[in-house]
Amino acid sequence: MSDIAPDGHDEPVPPVEPPRPRRTWLTLPANPIGSGFLVSLGVVLTGALVFAIGATSTVLISVFLAAFIALALDPAIRALEKRHVKRSIGVLIVGVCFLALVAVICLVVAPTVISQFVEFVKGIPDAIVKIEQSQWWANLEASLGLDLNKLIADSVKASANLSVLLAVSGGVLHAGLGIIGAISSSIIVIVLTLYFVSSLEMIKGAIATLVPAYRRPTFITLMDEITGLVGGVVAGGVTLSALNAAVVFVIQLLIGSPVPALMAIVAFFITLVPMIGSVLYWILGSIVTLFIGPWQALIFAVLYLVYMQIEAYVLTPRVMGRAVAVPGFLIIIGAMAGATLFGFLGALVAIPITASILIIMRQVVVPKQDARTVAPDRGR
């Protein structure tokens, strides 16, 4: 007997497919023993990978740092290319300038900073005595109701005992090994930086070949934008830190500080941390300048605070460019998370990584979500 259509015509009605069973989030594996073995193997391999990363963390940090320095030097090479200089010659010029800068730091800046640091440490006891005999110190003790001299004496005694303990337990040996390790790591970073600078385009091309051909143009455009942004941000951060160091050096000379180069170098490295670095150094620099005198500390605090406002509202928008588009709270969160996970280096790369994630979100994730105008069928 044939099926009759609802309108009375003798036409076959297409068969109705039975509804497909809904997928559940929990299904029993067909082979529990084999599945359990694969899961256990995955856990073991993951643990081995984590252990390997921890064991080679120093090497990975050196490679990571060299890559960031190379990306920071790449804008200079691109600027030379715009002036009709071949890339090979531009790489040679930038590489020679980089090596010259390293030589100046090692031969001129480092000895001066070390000598000033030694003099600063030697002068700490006399500076403490001078502070304890000052009138403002007596007023501070009276207002707090504490014997600050006794607190300082106990702290110095504890640090002295700790120093003796570290020396007895091999602290000097560990310090020596740390210095040797730092020197070797610096050499590795310099060599890797030169290699990355000379072969950056080749590395980017090799990475692009791992992507399917139909997605390769979009991937290359996205990678060029990210690397250009990271290079600009790193170069801009180094420029702002150098300006910070120069301003600190001038202020320290004006107030008669015996360690202007040391304070400038400390300012350079601390202010590499985005946004919060300047605030941290303002506090640290004001405290250290107290060893020179209260008025000197006040002058430094006021002048550096003025510079912080100029840096925030004038210099940073011009130097950092597109990085200013990153919201401030994301920079702070990224810096705190990076410092927690990877220490000082993690805080340094907060802006580049945050900006890169925002680029991926805006150009990949958001367009893909905008293209989804129909809700998916939840029954399948």
TrEMBL record:
Residues 1-21 are annotated as: Disordered. One of its GO terms (biological process) is transmembrane transport. It is a multi-pass membrane protein. It is found in: Membrane. The keyword Lipid biosynthesis does not apply. Its main location: membrane. Residues 1-12 have a biased composition (Basic and acidic residues). It comes from the Bacteria. GO terms for cellular component: membrane. Belongs to the autoinducer-2 exporter (AI-2E) (TC 2.A.86) family. This is Permease.
